[in-house]
Amino acid sequence: MNRLRRLLVTLFALCELLLFAGSASAELRVVTTTPDLAAIAKAVGGQRVKVTALALASQDPHFVDARPHLALELSKADLLIVVGAELEAGWLPALLTGSRNGKIQPGSPGYLDASTLVDLLDVPKAKVDRSQGDIHPSGSPHYLLDPRRAERVAVGIGRRLAELDAGGRDAYLAATKAFVGELRTARQLHEKKLERLRGRPIIGYHRSLSYLADWLGLEVVDHLEPKPGIPPNPRHVAQVVELGRARKVAGLVQEAWFASGTSKLAAEKMGVPLVVIPGMTNFQGGQSYVQFIAMLATKLEGLK
Q1: What average pLDDT does the chain have?
Q2: Rounded to two decimals, what is the model's pTM?
Q3: Which one of 10, 91, 163, 249 has the lowest number of neighbouring Cβ atoms within 10 Å?
Q4: Any idea where the domains of the chain sit in the sequence?
């Protein structure tokens, strides 16, 4: 009898272990192209998702090495979330092909283009070509510098997760509401602190600040890059410095992944601060999107 009881206890424990392993493996595997999207997806998905970002926070997301380990991550994904608006056009297609994962190809339920969830700015009014620099025909893809648009992205991600994992629908809905509420409260606090900057002109480095300016009411009067993706040259920098002085700009703003030597020189000549902002959420380092926006706002307090 004792041996039978011990056997039954062992079998019961084994069943529990197998059930636990089964539930763990039932997590939705979500891969995003950027850390911003990863942070939002994790906030909305909670414990029901495992999230991986292909790009690092320190990388310019236009240029990511299409390495084999990234294709391997995609091969195991249930959902791929992309920034879209041609941001990943130079590196993602090769990885998608290498993944051999039909679930996450464009047009499938496992593929979500987050740019379709927001209204895009800087949409060219005429036909574009490479002579104009790195122009995005669909509009600027840097919309996650605006937390208002991030709210819409979060809602869209929550809905897609619920479609792929119907059993977690209520959990995704609750997590989405909680995230949007937290982000909205934080956003309103930052807006109040930065109210003094509304209407102030700034100089940018790359043409990526439209959404940030739209959120906070800043005016981007020019950029150090003569064309998007084209490095600054002395003649153009001199023109920008002259304009910056004339307009009494509040500062020069650039993302951390750009070299800052020319920016420092230009800012000194204009007599204004150089504000280096984080380009994306440090998801791999544990930073949430709400924390990223807080860091961004803190950096912008350095403007005149």
Answers
A1: 91
A2: 0.89
A3: 10
A4: 7-190, 193-300
- Among 18-32, 84-98, 152-166, 175-189, which stretch is predicted with the lowest mean pLDDT? 18-32
From CA 273, how far away is CA 249, in angstroms rounded? Answer: 10
As assigned by CATH, the class of the 193-300 domain is alpha beta
SS (H, E, C) the chain: CHHHHHHHHHHHHHHHHHHHHHHHHCCEEEEECCHHHHHHHHHHHHHHEEEEECCCCCCCCCCCCCCHHHHHHHHCCCEEEECCCCCCCCCHHHHHHHHCCHHHCCCCCCEEEHHHHCCCCCCCCCCCCHHHCCCCCCCCCCHHHCHHHHHHHHHHHHHHHHHHCHHHHHHHHHHHHHHHHHHHHHHHHHHHHCHHHCCCEEEECCCCCHHHHHHHCCEEEEECCCCCCCCCCHHHHHHHHHHHHHHCCCCEEEECCCCCHHHHHHHHHHCCCEEEECCCCCHHHCCCHHHHHHHHHHHHCCCC
Q: Which residues contact 170 (CB under 8 A, 6 or more apart)?
A: none
pLDDT in tens, 157-216: 999 999 999 999 999 999 999 999 999 999 999 999 999 999 999 999 999 999 999 999
Predicted confidence (pLDDT) per residue in 131-157, tens digit: 555 667 889 999 999 999 999 999 999
**What number does CATH give the domain 7-190?**
3.40.50.1980
Q: What angle do CA 247, 253, 259 make, to 5 degrees?
A: 125
